[in-house]
Amino acid sequence: MTDKLSRRLFLQGSVAASAVAASGIITGAAVAAHHKTPAVAYGPKPGVAKLNANENPYGPSPAAMKAIMAASAKGAYYAADPYRVLVDMIAEKNSVSKSQVSLSAGSSGVLSYTAVLASTKGKILGPDLFWDTTAKTPQKIGAEKIKRTAKTEDLGIDLDAMYAAITPDVAMVQITNPNNPTGRLLDPVKLREFCIKASKKALVLVDEAYNEVTDMPEKNSMMSLINEGHNVVVARTFSKLFGLAGMRVGYMIASEENTAEINRYSLGGYSMNQAGLAAAIASYNDEAFLKMSKSKIVEGREMILSAVKANGLIALPSETNFVFVDLGKGNAEIFRQEMAKQNVLIRGIYRDYNNWSRVSTGLIPDVQKYVDAMPMALEKTLAKA
Ligand SMILES: Cc1ncc(COP(=O)(O)O)c(C=O)c1O
Fold this sequence. Notes:
By secondary structure, the protein is α/β, with parallel strands linked by helices. It has helices spanning 3-22, 28-34, 62-72, 80-93, 106-119, 137-140, 159-164, 188-198, 217-220, 224-227, 256-262, 274-283, 287-310, 332-341, 364-383; strands at 49-50, 101-104, 123-126, 147-148, 170-176, 203-207, 232-237, 250-253, 314-315, 322-326, 344-345, 356-360. It is built from 15 helices and twelve strands. The structure holds pyridoxal-5'-phosphate (PLP).
């Protein structure tokens, strides 16, 4: 292009731009001036102890952070390769084939797909209290409500009652172990017996979101039942011990047939992102980080349990990153509000368990805030009882 020509085009462009501006249509410069990125709070606001969602703020690990940065720089590309790598790693660690592993954005994805699949065949059976968010998904598209077994006095899961409730119209039985919000862990021998019996009548889904946080993860897992040929599926997540809740990676292990059926509802690699997969890959076998993470959870849990005792309350035993506290005559929703006034976020009432309050472990200084806030919050709660 000659100098003369480029100058002419430049002038034409300027004339056109001023004409557009005069006509009221937004110019490129004006677009730039209006393009303000909204302020976003990633995580809790400063000064707020967020202990309400069973997250683990000791993650992401340093290795995961590095991997997130590298992967995000390639965020323009779909994440097919890291998807395959993580599937391979999970398959290898659990001695299953690749076609027995399904990944999703958090375990919520695979849990929901399984619930939807089950609802095409019959009802979902669960205990009175469990993490039922995904089991409720089919209800949104017209399926029947979850069939629940009766409440038990110790807030545990009555496996005999559950077995007796597996009528021919039940397609899937869901067990959360350890359970959320109770934190209760089932006896692995009894659970194993139950899974073997129950899976002859219906698909058994064991949600093991907190398995890695327990004292003996392998012993507590029902994973081995899958390759023994039982009709059992197990869901796991990177959201808890791995400290990656916001990075959204979870998975399910099942027989090849069950995985293929569940995957009919999944978009596989298209539902995942580079950064989340990178973080999961970098964390999966990071034993030093996982050990540190667990020790912080245990430390926080001990602090909560001591405070519970010191304030004359009791709590259920827990091998998770949360504790279910019995407030006696206190109402859990009022207690939640009183805690929030002191910048401590915890959970309110679950179903009709009015006096039960769930608090998650978190950063140790945040757990300390909960401990410090407890006497006043409890006094005010009990005054309203
Ligand atoms: C028992 C249980 N399962 C599954 C989930 C889902 O977690 P995610 O989708 O982050 O894996 C949660 C979340 O708190 C949970 O408590």
